[in-house]
Amino acid sequence: MFPFVSSFLTLVSVFAAPPRTQIVEGDPALFCEMPSLVFLKIYRTFLMGYRMCGGTLISPSYVVTAAHCLEGLIDYIEVNVGSLNKHETVQNVTSTINFRHENYTRSKYLIENDIGLLKLEKPVKNVECVSQMDMAAKDDVFDNKTCIIAGWGRLGLKESHSDVLQKAFVPVVPIDECRNKSSLAISDGFICAGDYIPGGASICKGDSGGPLICPHGNNMVLAGVISYGLDCSREASLFTSIAYYRDWIDNIMNE
């Protein structure tokens, strides 16, 4: 397949239609297993309903997500914290201030700088099943490690969705190897994770903005943000690297 055609299919598969819900070939997350993961309802100006994305709580007042979740004019975002079921609420807070990376771009062929932050109107309380996730440091590398993806995205490209958070394990592929194997166009600032077995564990529509969680020493850290893939399980997927954008994140949070 020609590179431009494959890249076009990639972007269509990830961004076409408002996201739904569930990780491909995953399992339901256990009680309190993902205390930093949040479900986002994004209400946009002049549009009925809301768009759904995932995000990760990185401080009591900030959530990191994908920039493409923040496209368009946004009225406000509901942030559901601490619940495995997207229809149940442990804490529900609102964000009207969001930061999309100033150099974010998305075309038929390429996505760049796909990262954004939400500032919450009030800090989240650390209660049962709610806590912040440690982020990868600036120079951290996760090649060949087995990591966790999680979200409320579809089970497959044409599958139905679930109300319950799903998780799956995926290997991180060195980015040069990924570029050689992949039919996707890949810019700097991404982590590649997954396998090249059709039908394997993968992200899908609705998982955007959710986490790639990787081992680092004795801890688990937020290594990436779910960005895009090809038809929900045809090959490895791409995650915006937290390490690559750590300075950008810290600068906004410290303003």
Automatic annotation (TrEMBL):
The record's annotation in CDD domains points to: Tryp_SPc
* Keyword entries, A-Z: Disulfide bond, Hydrolase, Protease, Serine protease, Signal
Q: Does the keyword Hydrolase apply?
A: yes
Cite the GO molecular-function annotations of the record.
serine-type endopeptidase activity
GO BP annotations, alphabetical order: proteolysis
Signal peptide boundaries:
1-16
So which domain of life are we looking at? Eukaryota
Pfam (any one): Trypsin
**Carries keyword Oxidoreductase?**
no
Residues of the Peptidase S1 domain: 23-254
Q: Which family does it belong to?
A: Belongs to the peptidase S1 family. CLIP subfamily.
Instruction: State the protein's name.
Output: SP1-Abd-16
State the organism named in the record.
Answer: Abdopus aculeatus (Algae octopus)
What lineage is this protein's organism placed in?
A: Eukaryota, Metazoa, Spiralia, Lophotrochozoa, Mollusca
